[in-house]
Amino acid sequence: MDTLWKLSAAGIISLAYVIPFFGEGKRLRDFNYIKIILIAVVWAYISILPLLGEVSIHILGMITLERFLFIFAITLPFDIRDLAIDNTSRLITIPKMIGNKNTYRLCTACMVVGLLALALASKLSGAENFYKHSYLIFIIYLMTFGIIRLTKGKSSDYYYSGLLDGTLVLRGIMLWCYISVL
After folding, report:
1. Residue 102 confidence class, pLDDT cut points 50, 70, 90
2. No. of H helices and E strands in the chain?
3. Which of 1, 39, 139, 161 is the most exposed place for a label (fewest CB within 10 A)?
4. Which among 103, 110, 119 is positioned nearest to 72, based on CA atoms?
5. What pLDDT is stored for residue 144 in this prediction?
6. Tens digits of residue pLDDT in 28-51
7. 28 and 16 in contact (C-beta within 8 Å)?
8. How many CB atoms lie within 10 A of CB 108?
């Protein structure tokens, strides 16, 4: 039952993201700037649920920050791709506000800070085996950085839903394989 309560907050946000609960038929995703922040918050929160009560609040905070920044970085190119659609609905997004070039720079900054947060979480843990798989995360980050760069000028769903979203699956598979070998 405790897990259900922990998941309910993410569920409510997810429902409000797609169902028009607000005046004039608005969904959460229809409010300026909030779309990708909500995605990153929900994914980061869901991914740290198994760690609640297992690690210190400081380590949990660094891991949450790392996951938020990773999701945020891979979601920003979707907003670049959707600029024309968002313009017709008058939705103001980060790429519309700062431009495509600066949005890609923001992706890079998120990736760098995410890796630093991961390194800090590992250092704070003090446990030799905690986040021993950090080098795998580093490889995933490098691959993701390359995939983000590949999306420049592309609009195909293969690049976005396949490659960018696929980095989440790749991350899970690589970590699962690593843990299974131990």
Report:
1. very high
2. 9, 0
3. 1
4. 110
5. 92
6. 888 888 888 999 999 999 988 888
7. yes
8. 13
CA distances from residue 131 to 38, 81, 118, 134 in whole angstroms, order as listed: 26, 34, 8, 5
- 46 Cβ contact partners less than 8 Å away, ≥ 6 residues apart: 7, 10
| Structure confidence at residue 22 (pLDDT) | 84
Token output for 161 = 């839903």
pLDDT band for position 132 (50/70/90)? Answer: low
- Answer yes or no: is pLDDT of 59 > 70: yes
Q: Is 111 helix (H, G, I), strand (E, B) or coil?
A: helix
pLDDT for residue 178 is more than 90? no
The position carrying tokens 């293969």 is 158
The token pair that represents 100 in the structure block = 């495509």
Question: Helices 57-81 and 100-125 meet at what angle, rounded to 10?
Answer: 160
Q: What 3-state DSSP class applies to 89?
A: coil
Residue 74 CA: distances (Å) to CA of 28, 65, 100: 20, 14, 14
* Cβ partners under 8 Å of residue 20, min gap 6: 26, 27, 30
Its pTM stands at 0.87
